[in-house]
């Protein structure tokens, strides 16, 4: 099981972003969560899931904003499952606490705590986050349009630019590198939990 614990960065100088984070996570992966996201303490949000693809999507959604430290704990949780993540107990919760504390000190705002292979997964996902952190606003604009299902031709028409210009933005934003990395990272996370990723199940 994966438990994700996130803590808002610079919460004393910015508005409360917990409701936004809960909404964003629910919209992205809500049906795939075992325990829905909730505010657990102060400016923290916590959730649990068995789906490695959902974990990666949560990590990428929250680290994109630069406003969250994201800790992922991998391990068992006590059964029967509680109705609320706030009542959850077990190894994964303890490890998520360790991970979020380490994430607060990490440039990439992410840490994963689990068995030996967790550090490997952490290192690889951090590389992807560093790549995404270098992405320009124009690169994110193309990312969002293509992620919504538009083709590059459609995106060019929407933005009023040429298809060649779109291709240049796609290249500069390393979108194809991310597209190739995501399934591999899902598989790496799946191996941590002993389960299979969405791409392997497909």
Summarize this, please?
This protein has 202 residues and is an alpha+beta fold. It has 9 helices and 5 strands; from the N terminus they run E-H-E-E-H-E-H-E-H-H-H-H-H-H. 54% of the residues lie in helices and 14% in strands.
How does the SSE layout of this entry go?
Blueprint: E1 2-8, H1 18-29, E2 35-39, E3 44-49, H2 52-65, E4 68-74, H3 91-103, E5 110-113, H4 116-133, H5 137-147, H6 152-159, H7 163-172, H8 175-193, H9 198-201
Parallel strand pairs: 4-5
Antiparallel strand pairs: 1-3, 1-4, 2-3
Sum up the structure in keywords.
Alpha-Beta Plaits; 5-stranded mixed sheet
Q: Can you describe what's shown?
A:
The chain is an alpha+beta fold. Helix content is 54%, strand content 14%. A five-stranded mixed sheet has the order 2-3-1-4-5. The radius of gyration is 17 Å and the shape is globular. The relative contact order is 0.14.
What is the topology, as strand order, of the major beta sheet? 2-3-1-4-5
Largest sheet: 5 strands, mixed
Give the N-to-C terminal Cα separation. Answer: 20 Å
Strand fraction: 5-15%
Low-confidence stretches: 196-202
């Amino acid at each position: 099981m994966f438990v994700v614990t996130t803590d808002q960065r610079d919460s004393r100088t910015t508005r409360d972003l917990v409701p936004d984070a809960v909404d964003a996570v629910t919209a992205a992966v809500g049906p795939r969560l075992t325990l829905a996201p909730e505010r657990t303490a102060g400016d923290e949000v916590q959730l649990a899931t068995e789906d490695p693809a959902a974990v990666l999507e949560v990590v990428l959604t929250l680290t994109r904003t630069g406003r969250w430290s994201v800790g992922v704990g991998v391990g068992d949780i006590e059964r029967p499952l509680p109705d609320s993540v706030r009542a959850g107990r077990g190894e994964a919760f303890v490890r998520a606490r360790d991970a979020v504390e380490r994430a607060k000190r990490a440039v990439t705002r992410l840490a994963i705590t689990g068995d030996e292979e967790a550090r490997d997964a952490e290192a690889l996902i951090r590389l992807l986050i560093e790549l995404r952190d270098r992405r320009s606003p124009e690169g994110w604009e193309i990312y969002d349009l293509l992620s919504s299902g538009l083709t590059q031709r459609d995106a060019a028409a929407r933005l009023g630019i040429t298809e060649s210009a779109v291709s240049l933005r796609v290249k500069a934003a390393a979108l194809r590198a991310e597209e190739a990395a995501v399934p591999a990272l899902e598989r790496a996370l799946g191996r941590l939990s002993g389960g299979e990723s969405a791409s392997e199940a497909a």
